C-alpha cells in the first residue's frame, strides 16, 4: 500500500550510472515478487542455478566503492537493537560491512554455491528460500536486503512490530534487482514510512511500519 518516503540529502559523493533495462530478466523477477507473485518451482530453481553459476567469480563484486551506500545507512540511521538478519547474503560481501557495525545473527541465501564461498566465522550462514524463511513470526528486529528480491508478505511476517527493513541497491537504478524506496513501501502490506538517500553509486531506504493512531 502507499506509504511515506522522506528523502535525506546525500552526505557522500555520488556516482550516477546508466539504469538497468526494465526487461532485464532479474528486474522482471524483482518486480513480479514485489507484486506478490509466487516464488518456487522452476523459477526458484533457475534463480538458484544462476547464482550458483556465478559464485566462483563473485569476489569481483567485492569493490569498496560499491558498498558505500550500505555503510552510509548504518552510519546515518538509528536502527533498532536486537536480532539482525541479512537476506541474500551471497558470499558475505555485504555481511563484512554490516558486521563492522553490529552482529549478524543469520546470513541467508538460496545459493549453496554462494554460501560455499562465504568466510567461516563471520556469521551463521543459512541456506534458505527467503520467500519461506525458517524464522518465527515477529522474530527479527532488522532485516537487511542488499541487491535482494523483496518478498513482502514474508518480510512482514518475520519482522517485529517496531522492526526496520534496510533495502540497499549498490549501483542504484543500474542494479538488476532494484526497487525505488517508493516501490518498497508500496509493496509492503499495511502502512509504512521510510527514509531514503543515495551514497556513491548506490541507493538505500529504511522502512518501518507507520505509527498507529492512539
Give the helices and strands, then pairings.
Layout (H helix, E strand, L loop, with lengths): L3 E4 L17 H10 L6 H14 L13 H9 L7 E4 L5 H9 L4 E4 L2 H5 L8 E3 L12 E7 L5 H7 E11 L11 H7 L4 E8 L2 E8 L5
Parallel strand pairs: 1-7, 2-3, 2-5, 3-4, 5-6
Antiparallel strand pairs: 6-8, 7-8
Helical content stands at 25-40%
**What is the rounded Rg?**
16 Å
Tally of DSSP helical segments: 7
> Which sheet architecture does the biggest sheet show?
8 strands, mixed
Mean pLDDT: 94
Kindly, what is the distance between the CA atoms of the first and last residues, rounded to a whole number of angstroms? 21 Å
Computed structural class: alpha/beta
Report on this model:
- The protein is built from seven helices and eight strands.
- The chain is of the alpha/beta class.
- Strands 1-7-8-6-5-2-3-4 form an eight-stranded mixed sheet.
- Helix 3 (68-76) runs parallel beside helix 4 (93-101).
- The longest helix is centred in the first third of the chain and has 14 residues, at 41-54.
Amino acid at each position: 500500500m502507499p506509504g511515506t518516503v522522506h528523502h535525506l540529502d546525500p552526505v557522500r559523493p555520488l556516482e550516477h550510472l546508466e539504469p538497468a533495462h526494465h526487461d532485464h530478466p532479474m528486474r522482471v523477477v524483482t518486480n513480479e515478487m514485489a507484486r506478490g507473485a509466487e516464488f518456487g518451482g522452476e523459477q526458484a530453481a533457475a534463480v538458484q542455478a544462476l547464482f550458483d553459476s556465478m559464485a566462483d567469480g563473485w569476489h569481483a563484486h567485492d569493490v569498496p566503492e560499491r558498498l558505500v551506500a550500505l555503510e552510509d545507512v548504518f552510519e546515518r540511521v538509528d536502527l533498532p537493537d536486537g536480532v539482525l538478519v541479512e537476506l541474500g547474503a551471497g558470499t558475505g560481501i555485504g555481511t563484512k560491512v554490516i558486521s563492522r557495525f553490529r552482529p549478524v545473527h543469520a546470513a541467508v541465501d538460496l545459493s549453496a554455491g554462494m554460501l560455499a564461498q562465504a568466510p567461516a566465522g563471520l556469521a551463521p550462514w543459512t541456506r534458505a528460500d527467503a520467500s519461506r524463511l525458517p524464522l518465527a513470526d515477529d522474530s527479527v528486529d532488522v532485516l537487511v536486503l542488499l541487491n535482494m528480491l523483496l518478498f513482502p508478505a514474508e518480510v512482514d511476517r518475520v519482522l517485529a512490530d517496531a522492526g526496520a527493513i534496510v533495502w540497499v541497491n549498490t549501483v542504484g537504478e543500474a542494479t538488476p534487482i532494484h526497487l525505488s524506496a517508493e516501490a518498497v513501501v508500496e509493496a509492503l502490506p499495511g502502512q509504512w514510512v521510510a527514509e531514503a538517500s543515495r551514497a556513491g553509486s548506490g541507493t538505500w531506504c529504511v522502512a518501518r511500519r507507520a505509527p498507529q493512531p492512539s
